[in-house]
Amino acid sequence: MIMLGWVAVIGLPLAVVFAVIFLPERIPKERTVEAIRQRLEDEESGRPVGAQRVVRSCHTWQAGLIFGRGRR
Q1: Distance between CA atoms of 72 and 8, rounded to whole angstroms?
Q2: 56-65: long-range contacts (C-beta < 8 A, 24 or more apart)?
């Protein structure tokens, strides 16, 4: 009976940590940063929503957010 208690005390939290780290919920494609940015740019430019465009890199913009120099 004590062994079952130890399994519950140690095993259950380890299982939860494993699940959170290795089985994250996938973000839907329309909810990604790039999709939201494109939707906003389409609305501002008057293009039909969903129109094809060349995807540009956003590493500089993301680095600005990380280091506190970007727009929010």
Answers
A1: 43
A2: 58/33, 58/34
How open is the CA angle 48-50-69, to the nearest 5 degrees?
100
- pTM reported for the whole predicted model: 0.39
CB atoms within 10 A of CB 65: 13
Q: Which residues contact 65 (CB under 8 A, 6 or more apart)?
A: 72
User: Digits of tens for pLDDT over the chain (72 positions)?
Assistant: 899 999 899 999 999 999 999 998 888 888 899 999 999 998 888 766 555 555 555 555 555 556 565 554
Residue 20: burial class (beta carbons within 10 Å; 0-12, 13-18, 19+): exposed
**Do 17 and 23 meet the contact criterion of CB atoms below 8 Å apart?**
no
